[in-house]
Task: structure prediction
Amino acid sequence: MKADPRVLQMALAPQSSLEDILALAGSRYRVAFETVSLGPMAIDLLQIVDLPEYIDRLVDTSRPGETLNLPFWAKLWPASLPLALLVSRMSLPPGKRLLELGAGLGLCGLAAAMRGFQSLITDIEPESLLFIRASILKNGLGHMARAAYLDIAATTLDERFEAIVASEALYLPDLHEPLARFLASHLSDEPGSQALLSFDQGREARSFFARANQDFLLQRSQTACRSDSGEARTSVICRMQRRAGS
Result:
């Protein structure tokens, strides 16, 4: 699908209404809100209806040799669910700042906003930000959350966060070093501040953890989850806290 400059503009403009955002999203995809339950917390998440069918159709109609830009941002990855559940139970005082990186549909950042965090929910894909903004408005979180464009390899923010979360952010090896640097630069040094990363157990990320270990104490735990097909998977959640003096 061709890029449309209106997508990023509408995703970030404060005056954009939910009705206008849904109209633009609906002109590009078949969309609907689906409710994701995180214990007692329920979040309405804008999604592409039947994403696998959409991707199959995209592949079938592509020309030979054409480079496809598949909407991986639109998939609710299995590892994002246990991370969002953990975020929904976090006990940092309300009003603290949380940053979600590579947010995709923004589930973790939305859960944090419902929990009482001031959430900055970011991605590099304009389409992702449009869907995130729709979900922010649908859930009445405009006062607690905002969507923002962020390229972790090229952007420096002028603030630090008490919590930084990311799901499946380690799938591109070229981003391991930039991600480790970004976390070191943007995680607050307040006591209790932490970064939480979730990823499939099979993800190879030695270069990231070798670099991150210089600045952070790392603690891993495993949790069971299921893929879209119902297959049992194991996700890893890595909790990162600053080393003294880093």
The mean pLDDT is 92. The helical segments are 5-12, 18-28, 51-60, 80-88, 107-115, 126-138, 176-186, 206-212.
